[in-house]
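Task: sequence design from structure.
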């Protein structure tokens, strides 16, 4: 299996992942929505999308891992949170308004040049408008 990421930036172990294509990003969005539907069918009351602790969505938000130059770049907060919003919107559409959609968001990278706590209010504002019911801000 080939490692993928927002950009071809080396992981700590030296592995250099392939940058995700737009088609692969759309597949990932669909996969989040499909997973949420399975969770709902299993009888749960809600789902939490995990976008912290170095996982893929966190990598798209992080200036350390995201070196893209497209609409998913880190140039603006709108771009930094674009994938997050697209995932939340797809999940919300798939499960409906009567199902809780929570979002676990990484507060900061704790490394020079990374995401910072001061970015959180603006990022959260974008997520609130995407349709989340609850935001769980966490740190590593």
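Answer:
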């Amino acid at each position: 299996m080939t490692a993928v990421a927002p950009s071809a930036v080396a992981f700590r172990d030296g592995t250099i992942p392939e940058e995700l294509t737009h088609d692969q990003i759309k597949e990932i969005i669909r996969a989040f929505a499909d997973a949420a539907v399975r969770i709902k069918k299993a009888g749960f009351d809600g789902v939490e999308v995990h976008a912290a602790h170095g996982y893929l969505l966190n990598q798209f938000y992080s200036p350390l891992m995201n070196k893209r130059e497209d609409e998913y770049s880190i140039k603006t907060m709108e771009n930094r949170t674009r994938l997050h919003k697209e995932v939340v919107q797809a999940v919300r559409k798939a499960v409906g308004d009567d199902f809780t959609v929570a979002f676990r968001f990484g507060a900061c990278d704790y490394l020079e040049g990374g995401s910072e706590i001061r970015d959180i209010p603006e990022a959260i504002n974008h997520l609130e408008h995407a349709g989340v019911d609850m935001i769980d801000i966490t740190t590593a």
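The chain has a mean pLDDT of 95.
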